[in-house]
Amino acid sequence: MKLENNWRYKSLQNLEKIGVEDPAAAPTPLVRRCLELLKLPLNEFTTGDLRLMIGQEFSLPYLVPLAIEELTEDLFAEGDYYPGDLLAVVLKIKTAFWEENQQLFNAITSLIINRHGQIKEAGISLGSFAA
After folding, report:
1. 3-state secondary structure of 41
2. What pLDDT sits at residue 10?
3. What are the sequence ranges of the domains in the chain?
C-alpha cells in the first residue's frame, strides 16, 4: 500500500474515508475511545493509542508503520499497561496481514531478530515471528 506524503497528519476517518458516529453515544468506554481515535490525526497518537487501535485491528497499514517507528526507538515501549505492550500487540497481528505486507514483516523481523531471549523473558509471545 502506497501512502500519500501527508498521511501522518490525517485521521483514520479521513484516510479510510469512513463515517464515525458520535463517541458520546458509544456503548462502552473502549468503543468510545476507539471512535475518538478514529478522528484524531495520526501524528497525535500516543504509544497507548497505537497499542489500543492495533489490538483492535484498526487500519493496520497505517498504524503498523507508526508502531515500527516507536519500536525502533524503544522495543519495549509502554502503552498504558506494561513495558513491551505495544510490541506484544504488534506480534499478535494475524499472519495474513504480514503475508500481504512483507516489507513491514521484514522491518519487525529486523527489530527482534537478535532479541528473542529478551522478548520471551518479558513474557511476550513471538507469534508469527517465532520461526
Report:
1. strand
2. 94
3. 7-129
Please say whether the dihedral angle defined by the alpha carbons of residues 67, 7, 44 and 54, taken in this order, is positive or negative: negative
Q: Give the Cα separation of 61 and 84 in Å (integer).
A: 21
Of the candidates 32, 58, 106, 48, the residue with the CA atom closest to the CA atom of residue 82: 48
**Residue 26: band (very low, low, confident or very high) from pLDDT cuts 50, 70, 90:** confident
Residue 61's SS3 state is: helix
Residue 104 falls in which region: left (phi positive, over 0), alpha (psi -120 to 50) or beta: alpha
pTM of the model: 0.91
Q: Rounded distance, CA 78 to CA 66, Å?
A: 14
